[in-house]
Specification:
24% of the residues lie in helices and 28% in strands. The protein has one helix and three strands; from the N terminus they run βββα. 5% of the residues are buried.
Length: 58
């Protein structure tokens, strides 16, 4: 089971991470958000679009 964790960091910014049931972090926001709402919106964007993402070998 995967879960998104929404948290406030040391800089008082909101971030998210996607954690696997084994505890490993699979993805994170990569940036902090001033507003909690913006971090929640980013989570929804990932939920809506990640399943359609292509894999590009670089």
């Amino acid at each position: 089971m995967l879960k998104f964790e929404l948290y406030n960091d040391k800089a008082d910014e909101w971030r998210w991470r996607l954690r696997h049931r084994n505890g490993n972090i699979m993805a994170d926001s990569g940036e902090g958000y001033v507003r909690k709402t913006d971090a929640r919106n980013a989570i929804e964007t990932v939920r809506d679009h990640a399943g359609d993402a292509d894999v590009e070998e670089i």
